[in-house]
Amino acid sequence: MPLSFSMRGLAPLALLLLAPLALAQPSADVPVQRVILFTSGVGYFEHEGTIRGDADLTLRFEQRALDDVIKSLVVEDTRGRVSEVVYPSQAPLERRLQAFAVDFSNVGGIGSLFSQMRGAVLEIETAAGTFRGPLTSVDGPTGGENDPGTRLTVLTATGLRTIALQDARRVGITDPDLRAEVEGALAALAEGTSGERKPVTVRFRGGSSRSVRLGYVVESPVWKTTYRLVLPARGETEGYLQGWAVVENPTESDWEEVSLELVSGRPISFEMDLYSPRYLQRPVVQLPDEAAGVVPRTYAAGSGGGRLSARPSGAPGTIRGQVRDGSTGEPLIGANVRLEGTPLGAATDRQGRFQIDGAPREGTRTLTVSYVGYESTSRRLDLASGWTVDASLQPSRNLSEVAVSAERPIIQNDAIGAPRAVAGEARANLPLRGVAAAEPAPPPPPMAITAGVESSAEAGQLGELFVYTLGDVSIPRRGSAMLPVVTDPVRAERLSVFTPGASGRHPLRGARLRNTTEKHLRGGPITVFDDGYAGDALLPDLPPGDDRLVTYAVDQDVLVDPVDDETRSGTVESASLADGVLVLQRERIRSSSYRVENRGERERTVLIEHPRLSGGRLTGGLDADETAPGLYRLRLAVAPGETDTLRVREAAPLSETYRIGQLSGPRILALVRSNAGLSSDVRRALERAADLAEAVAEAERQLDVLRSERQTIARDQDRIRENLQAVDNGTDYARRLLRKLNEQEDQLESLDRRIASAQEEVERRREAFERGVRELRAE
Question: Is the pLDDT of residue 542 over 50?
């Protein structure tokens, strides 16, 4: 049967030919039966159905999903075989159209289309009859007043016949090869203009009725969780947790009673361009003398995780400073400061300040500042002097979790025209007339959140990952659903959590939630209920058996006032002297306290997050409820209407190093007097070193006296020489001045000999001091 053209235009022709292609849908016999959604942004979709004999099953995907389909498609046909999987090329539509015998890429009209078919046998049906023969020419239109439009001339059995296209009812192509080319070009044209969805056809070959399956991994919305937590009644420890999974069906197929698996894990998943044709770029070779000149480079600006500036200040051995958030300028509490290559370090206080004592007094060391969630920064310091440091840290870009919160509007109570409540005596003074007082209606009973919602999810493992499995799930195409996955009692302890600098003087109401559900709880928002809505919280991923703190509201009935820290150095616990270096070991002691006032009507258990002293431990019989990075969580129960104080005492090892050869005698003796914990051996060794140092100082003082005396004589000689230039050499005064100069020259020669001897004495005593210090050994 010849391919026929309607003369009412090319576009209707293309649509008519390709209508079956445009309406093609995934086979109804192979619907989606299993869906596995991951938290890494992909989903596995599995189809299963029955086919008979040879069958071509076509699924359509958005073009951006084809890379994933090509990468992951798996097919099962246990009683047949899969011959191939075909999909359209991504070559540009214009290039694909140009590959056909009839080029539709630049068709200006029906006349230009037929011009490409000259020589082909056409069959033209008109009112005067049907004419058959090879097409010889295409003419017109000319644009004249009586222009008949496009005219086709064919060579019939009786001769050439010219037919106006407007008179033709039908034009047929009798050559089957040419007809196939036109059909292929029209199919490509329709495919290129039908949108982004591309067909992927799996060709099954077999001779019987059989079941087949195919699956693939494509990009899919991340499934989410949202929870409702009902706090336990006063005096009880068990609450109720209700969890819902939020799932989207992003496909073009309805999910009808599918098996849905929600995996709480993040398998590695990536994109790779497999759909686009890939060509290897060949090198361009040219003779050396024809090579181009050197191309100038540009260099990107470097970036760092923070800024650390330091300036020399005071005597060596002490490094102090402050650490701030580089974005907000706020002080960072509990930031870690370490002097690399030494056991020395510190943690910042509530003002972000720190101090390191006992640093080495020579050489260079790297000072590193770090804080959880921030990029660390460091700087090399010359320890010959003390330092004052200003550090600003930038938030890290590689956080594994991001908490997103929405800011709720604040109601300004004193705004003009704003509604406000009137209660108590003020209500009785309102100018109301003729209004009867109504009894307040009893509040409705609280909603039984635990009633009527049952989880149909089964918890289990999928390889190394945790999975919720739900059967018979139905979600319409492009639809969403909330599915209950957790309806279990959980252990919850009411707490008020105070973090210095986080919420002013008030702690946050919260709870320590222990996962007793035997399910892995994926992170998500929690709506908390406590005799009604109490607030919102955010729960991170929580494995079975673990517990987390969640906070949901400001506890306005409790006030917490931190008292300023007091830090001091304890007595020397041990000392060693060797090779001229004195090392003192003592404790750095920090005392803090928190005054907690409970203005409420119920007892409060307050959990205070106290910044840890770097390398320290709690003393005085106080134990932490738990320890987190950079802080202790300390528990304090406060009765209603009472005020209590939590006192915190911490101790951390502190090492001080002194190079005795660089100290004066009085400074060495001051070390002996100020450190009562020194052993008698260390004391005697230091006193011996002080004597040697004082001997050096005495020799240097004698040398300074001689040098001062010589300078005095030299200045007097300068005066005499100036006077000699002003008088006659034959006068008595001139002769007197000359005698004075001679006497002073004799004195200078004597002083020079004494100064040389004094210098030798200084060097001898200094060598004795250095040798004696090196030989000192004591503990």
Answer: yes
* SS3 per residue for 351-406: CCEEEEECCCCCCEEEEEEECCCECCEEEEEECCCCEEEEEEECECCCCCCCCCCC
Alpha helices in 116-213 (DSSP H): 176-192
Average pLDDT on 288-297 reads 44
How far apart CA 276 and CA 742 sit, in angstroms, is: 105
The answer to whether residues 270 and 569 touch, using CB atoms and an 8 Å cutoff, is no
HSE (side-chain half, CA atoms, 13 Å) at 526: 29
Over range 485-489, report the average pLDDT.
Answer: 89
User: What is the predicted pLDDT for the residue at 294?
Assistant: 43
List of residues 6+ apart from 313 with CB closer than 8 A: 385, 386, 387, 388
Q: Say which DSSP state 105 is in.
A: T
Alpha-carbon 185 to chain mean position:
50
Question: Which SS3 state, helix, strand or coil, does residue 703 take?
Answer: helix
- Please say if the pLDDT value at position 689 is more than 90: no
**pLDDT, position 466:** 76
Confidence of residue 468 (pLDDT cuts 50, 70, 90): confident
Calpha distance 605→511 (Å, rounded): 10
Q: Which residues pair with 594 in a beta bridge?
A: 562, 646
**Beta-strand relationship, 508-514 and 458-462:** unpaired
Residue 97: pLDDT band by 50, 70, 90 thresholds? Answer: low
In single-letter form, the type of residue at position 508 comes to L
Residue in this structure with the two tokens 């890494």, named with its chain if needed: 40
Give the pLDDT score at 413.
38
Distance CA(612)–CA(740), nearest Å, equals 76
The sign one gets for the Cα dihedral 633, 635, 640, 644 is negative
> Among 358, 422, 405, which residue's Cα sits nearest to residue 386?
358
Tens digit of each residue's pLDDT (9 = 90 or more) over 179-209: 888 887 777 666 655 556 788 889 989 888 8
Residue 427's beta-bridge partner residues? none
pLDDT band at 302 (very low <50, low <70, confident <90, very high): very low
Asked whether 44 and 267 are in contact (CB, 8 A), the reply is no
pLDDT at 693: 86
DSSP conformational letter for 100: S
Residue length of the chain: 779
Quick one: which H or E segment has residue 19?
helix 10-22
More confident residue, 520 or 421: 520
Higher-confidence residue of 18 and 602: namely: 602
d(CA 488, CA 238): 10
DSSP string, 532-562: SEEEEEEE--B-TT-EEEEEEEE-TTEEEEE
Phi-psi region of 601 (alpha: psi -120 to 50; beta: other; left: phi over 0): alpha
**CB-based contact 93:198 (threshold 8 Å):** no
Indicate if the pLDDT at residue 653 is higher than 50: yes
Does 56 score more than 80 pLDDT? yes
Q: What are the CB-based long-range contacts (under 8 Å, 24+) for 628-632?
A: 629/372, 630/334, 630/335, 630/336, 630/347, 630/371, 630/372, 631/334
Q: Which residues pair with 617 in a beta bridge?
A: 651
8 A C-beta contact, residue 247 and residue 480: yes
CA distance 351 to 361: 27
153-156 contacts at long range (C-beta below 8 A, 24 or more positions apart): 154/122, 154/124, 156/131, 156/132
Stated pTM of the model = 0.56
**Joined tokens for residue 201:** 């056809």
Q: Are strands 581-598 and 558-578 parallel, antiparallel or unpaired?
A: antiparallel
Would you state the pLDDT for residue 452? 53
Helix (H, G, I), strand (E, B) or coil at 73: coil
The closest alpha carbon to 368, from 401, 342, 349, belongs to 342
Across the range 96-125, mean pLDDT stands at 75
